[in-house]
Amino acid sequence: MESVKLDLENYRKLLKEYLLTNDETALYQAEQFSKLSVQHNISPEEIIHVHIEALKELYPELPREVSDSLNFLLEAMISYGLALQEYQFLRAKQSELESEISVAANMQKTLLSTVKPDIKGLDIGAISVPANSMNGDYYHFVADKEGTLGIALADVIGKGIPAALAMSMIKYSMDSFPENQRQPSMILENLNRVVERNVDPSMFITMFYGLYNPESETFSYASAGHEPGFYYHASKDKFEEIEARGLVLGATEHTTYQQFVNHIKKDDCIILLTDGVTECRVGDRFIERDEVLQVIKDYIHLPAQEAVDSVYKYFERLQDFHLRDDFTLIIIRKKV
Amino acid sequence: MGFNPCVNIRKEWDIVGARQLGREHAKELGFGTVDQARIATAISELARNIYLYAGTGKICFEVINQLDKKGLKIIAVDKGPGIRDISQVMQDGYSTSGGLGAGLPGVKRLMDHFEIRSESGEGTEIEAIKLVR
Question: pTM for the full model?
Answer without folding.
Answer: 0.68
